[in-house]
Amino acid sequence: MTNTSTSxxxxxxxxxxxxxxxxxAATLAFYERYTNLAVIHERHDPETDxxxxxxxxxxxxTTDGAARFVIVLIEGKLPTKITGDIQEQYG
Length: 91
Fold this sequence. Notes:
CATH class: Alpha Beta
CATH topology: 2,3-Dihydroxybiphenyl 1,2-Dioxygenase, domain 1
Structural class: alpha+beta
Radius of gyration: 17 Å
Helix content: 10-25%
């Protein structure tokens, strides 16, 4: 095992995480009830029928209305060009 010093590691900044959801309205209700996250952006793409919402902590908002970190919730069938052949499995 190689010992890599902290100074040699590449600095990264996580800006978002995207999560597919079955029911965007129910998921937003969950986040509203149990977190301090707020919707900062919503969109519906009529071509793909994808609905998205961006959630962020109000303290992370920037002066232009964006945020340093967001959770992107996506409802709808994701294009296989992007996801490949992802299969849901439980258990």
